[in-house]
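Q: What changes when iron/sulfur cluster is included in the input?
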Amino acid sequence: MRLPKFSYRVPKKVSEAVKMMVDSGPETSFVAGGTDLYPNMKRRQQTPRTVISVTRLRELREIRGDAATGMVIGASVSLTDLCEHPVIRRDYPVVANAARLISTPILRNMGTIGGNLLLDTRCNYYDQNYEWRKGINFCLKKDGDVCWVAPSSPKCWAVQSSDLAPVMVAIGAKLRLVSTVGDRLIDAAGIYNDDGIQYLHKRPDELLTEIHLPPVNGTRAVYKKLRRRGSFDFPVLGVAASVDVASDGVVQAASLVLGGVAPSPVQVREAEAALVGLPFDDERIHAAVEACYLKARPLDNTDFVMGWRKQMTRPFVRRALEELQRCTATGNQD
Ligand SMILES: Cc1cc2nc3c(=O)[nH]c(=O)nc-3n(C[C@H](O)[C@H](O)[C@H](O)COP(=O)(O)OP(=O)(O)OC[C@H]3O[C@@H](n4cnc5c(N)ncnc54)[C@H](O)[C@@H]3O)c2cc1C
Ligand code: SF4
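A: The predicted holo structure follows.
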C-alpha cells in the first residue's frame, strides 16, 4: 500500500505550527510518529492534503517535575522515552508500564504519547484497505451509510484502543491544547467522546502540547491489558485502576476506567462508589468487579468473541484491584 501524495511541513515553533494549520485549511493533519496516521492514509481512511509534523517542536519533547509537584510531559515524547524516563518509572510506574505494553520496540521509538492519546478509533470493518472496504460498500465511519456492527444504529461504535487513554483518565491527567485563538487545559476524561466518528472533543486546529500528571499524594495506580499476543497487539480490554487508601485502610478516592470496549474510555462510577469510604477488602473488590462487568458492553468489532471479552472484565478488574490491595498493604508503588 502506498501513501497518497501530500505536502509535508515542519514547523520549529508552536506558534508557527498552529498558524500553519489555519493557513493550510481543513484538509490538514498534525503528525507525530506517524504510526497511526500513515497506515490510515495508506488505507485511504484519512486523506489529508497537508501534513504538519510536530516532532521538531522542542517544547513538545520536554519532561519536567516529579511525584511531589506533578509532571508535565511534552506531547511528542516518544513511548520509549516514556518507558525509560527514571522519574516517570519511579513516580508514575503505571504510565511507564502501560507505555511498555504498546505495540513493538521499533514502533515505540517512533510513536508518541500525544499520538497515542489522540489515536483514531478502531473496528474490524474499518481497519482494512480501500478495496476491502469498497467490497462491503464502506461503512458509516468513512464513505458509507451503514454500520456493519450495529446496522440499525445511527452511531459508529469503533473502539478507543489507546493503552494510555484509560490510564490518563484514571489518574486525573490534564491535556493542554493550543491554537491560534488561545490555549486551554482540560481533563483527559473531557477530551473523549462516545462516538466512533467524532471521538474527540477537540477542534482539528488544536495542537496537543502537554500532558499534566497530577501530584501523586499517596495515590496508587495499575493498568492491565488483554490482547491476543503478548509480544504486540492492541488492547481488546484495558483496565486502569487507581486508589488512595488512608492509613486506617479506608479508601479515600478510587477510579476505575475500562479501555477497548467502547468509542471512549468508560469510567465506572458504580465501581468507584462501591469502594470509596469503605475498607479496601475482598467484599468491596467483589462489588467493584461486578459493577465493571455490568458496565462493559463490548461489540463484535475487534479481536476475540465479544461475550468472552465481557467475561474477561471480571478477572482483569479483580487482578488490578488485588494488585493495588497488595501494594497498599506493603507500601510498594505499583
Ligand atoms: C502494528 C501496530 C501495533 C500497535 N499497537 C498499539 C497498542 O498495542 N496500543 C496502542 O495504544 N497503540 C498501538 N498502536 C498505535 C500507535 O503506534 C501508538 O498509539 C502511537 O503511540 C501513536 O503515536 P504516533 O506519534 O505515531 O501518532 P501519529 O500517527 O503521529 O498521530 C496519531 C493521531 O494523533 C494526531 N496527533 C499526533 N500528535 C498530535 C499533537 N501533538 N496534537 C494534535 N494532534 C496530534 C494525528 O493527527 C493523528 O490523528 C499500534 C500501531 C501499529 C502500527
Ligand atoms: S462500528 Fe460500524 S460505522 Fe463504526 S467503523 Fe465499525 S462498521 Fe463502521
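Observations recorded in class: Residues 123, 125-126, 139-141, 147-149, 156-158, 196, 301 surround iron/sulfur cluster (ligand 2) (CB under 6 Å).
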